From TrEMBL:
<feature type="domain" description="MurNAc-LAA">
    <location>
        <begin position="264"/>
        <end position="418"/>
    </location>
</feature>
<dbReference type="InterPro" id="IPR021731">
    <property type="entry name" value="AMIN_dom"/>
</dbReference>
<feature type="region of interest" description="Disordered">
    <location>
        <begin position="170"/>
        <end position="202"/>
    </location>
</feature>
<dbReference type="Pfam" id="PF11741">
    <property type="entry name" value="AMIN"/>
</dbReference>
<dbReference type="Pfam" id="PF01520">
    <property type="entry name" value="Amidase_3"/>
</dbReference>
<feature type="signal peptide">
    <location>
        <begin position="1"/>
        <end position="28"/>
    </location>
</feature>
<protein>
    <recommendedName>
        <fullName>N-acetylmuramoyl-L-alanine amidase</fullName>
        <ecNumber>3.5.1.28</ecNumber>
    </recommendedName>
</protein>
<keyword id="KW-0732">Signal</keyword>
<dbReference type="InterPro" id="IPR050695">
    <property type="entry name" value="N-acetylmuramoyl_amidase_3"/>
</dbReference>
<keyword id="KW-0378">Hydrolase</keyword>
<dbReference type="InterPro" id="IPR002508">
    <property type="entry name" value="MurNAc-LAA_cat"/>
</dbReference>
<dbReference type="GO" id="GO:0008745">
    <property type="term" value="F:N-acetylmuramoyl-L-alanine amidase activity"/>
</dbReference>
Length: 429
């Protein structure tokens, strides 16, 4: 039973033409439906998530003067969970000024989002996955013009814009039906990086802190979230790589969900020489521990642990929530040859980084493991995924929470990259 207080009724009435007040008796029939609401403000885009027990039907439209996005949810009843949404809007949200909710008809809930700037909305539903129930996702992207203007500094906004239109595949290549343009490369030498890799300029390194926003990644026994740990470690790593004279970018530098394909597309668009994804591991058994480094396997995981991880990591897109997932591996001999050479280089890079990480923590395994991680699929960029430690292990969770371990991990990753790149230079002489 939903009761509107007199104050609420007055407040709803004050909202104006958009809402009509429905008699309380009519509201009582429908079940309370919303179980959670979340807002993830970020510069790249702001996401609003409404979570409900049942699947949601919706319509949306925009209004000008002032700019608003209106979402009508059918077969729904306003409840006190949904009413908390207004209080969740942060003052520094780049896109949202205010959110109002009301029972628009006996069976329709109306959400009105007052906007700070023109936006390109993406509204979609997600089926239950992991701990999430039915979700209605409202993503507020900057308008195309704003995205284009921001591209000079960082291609992320333009790529997200392309992604939201289904133009980017899960391997980061563009989805225009053609074989992605990759550079032909000679096969790599077994233990040194491929001499064919052109490094005539400052090497470009892309750091990829895993998860973000709606996708927390692993959560430690005391509540530490992987997305926050890995962002902190990536920022420290960037400082060190920049100080070494490399050009370093991050796939995300805020608490935002970035689809896996967009992360790879960003690295390709920046013409990255190396791609390093940073994570913290988790396993069903709390005793699992140790640092690990992974390279891509095109055939699937090489070990049971890698298989488990492959599933959970590739789930990120489902948990974080994406509307369209680009798909299908491209079948082309050139593509395969290039990827094979790239994987060999990735393994060499991985060994260099693992050697350094082995100095500060027990290694989960003595070698670089391989799995079919979506985020490592750039066909022409050596890519590794670093599992800094096990967040599911109480001892290692404490390590991951400590600033000194984060800094030493960052230093180890940077030193491993430096060792790899100095060999790459030697190999060219
Ligand atoms: Zn992860």
């Amino acid at each position: 039973m939903v009761k509107l207080t007199r104050r609420q009724i007055v407040r709803h009435a004050a909202v104006g033409l958009l809402f009509t007040i429905t008699p309380v008796a009519a509201l009582a029939k429908a079940a309370q439906q919303f179980v959670a609401v979340r807002i993830w403000p970020a510069n790249a885009y702001t996401r609003i998530t409404l979570e409900a027990a049942q699947a949601m039907k919706y319509k949306h439209f925009t209004l000008d003067n002032p700019a608003r996005l209106v979402v009508d949810i059918e077969g729904a009843t306003l409840n006190n969970v949904l009413q908390t949404i207004a209080a969740k809007v942060q003052r520094n949200d780049p896109y949202i000024a205010n959110i109002r909710v009301g029972q628009n008809t006996a069976t329709t809930v109306r959400v009105v989002i007052d906007l700070k700037q023109a936006i390109n909305p993406q509204v979609f539903t997600l089926a239950p996955v992991a701990n999430f129930r039915n979700r209605l996702v409202i993503d507020l992207y900057p308008s195309a013009a704003t995205a284009l203007a921001a591209e000079a500094d960082d291609p992320l906004m333009a790529l997200l814009n392309d992604y939201s239109k289904g133009k980017i595949r899960s391997d980061g290549t563009s989805n225009n039906g053609a074989v992605p343009p990759v550079k032909e490369r000679a096969p790599a030498i077994v233990d040194t990086p491929s001499p064919s890799r052109p490094l005539h300029r400052k090497p470009i390194i892309v750091l990829d802190p895993g998860h973000g926003g709606e996708d927390p990644g692993a959560i430690g026994p005391s509540g530490l979230r992987e997305k926050n740990v890995v962002l902190a470690i990536a920022r420290e790593t960037k400082k060190r790589l920049d100080a070494m004279g490399y050009k370093t970018y991050m796939t995300r530098n805020e608490d935002v969900f970035i689809p896996l394909g967009v992360r790879v597309a960003k690295a390709r668009s920046l013409k990255a020489d190396l791609f390093i994804s940073i994570h913290a591991d988790s396993f069903t058994s709390p005793s699992a521990r140790g640092t690990g480094v992974y390279a891509l396997s095109t055939r699937g995981a090489t070990s049971a642990a890698a298989r488990f991880l492959e599933q959970t990591q590739n789930n990120a897109d489902l948990i974080g929530g994406v509307q369209k997932v680009g798909n299908k591996n491209v079948d082309s001999t050139l593509f395969d040859m290039t990827q094979t050479a790239t994987i060999k280089d990735s393994l060499v890079l991985g060994r260099n980084v693992l050697n350094e990480l082995g100095k500060l923590n027990k290694l989960h395994k003595g070698h670089v493991d391989q799995a079919n991680f979506a985020v490592l699929r750039a066909p022409d960029i050596p890519s590794i995924l670093v599992e800094t430690a096990f967040l599911s292990n109480p001892t290692e969770e404490k390590l991951l929470a400590s600033s000194s371990f984060r800094q030493r991990s960052a230093a180890a990753i940077a030193n491993g990259v430096k060792a790899y790149l100095s060999k790459a230079v030697l190999a060219r002489r």
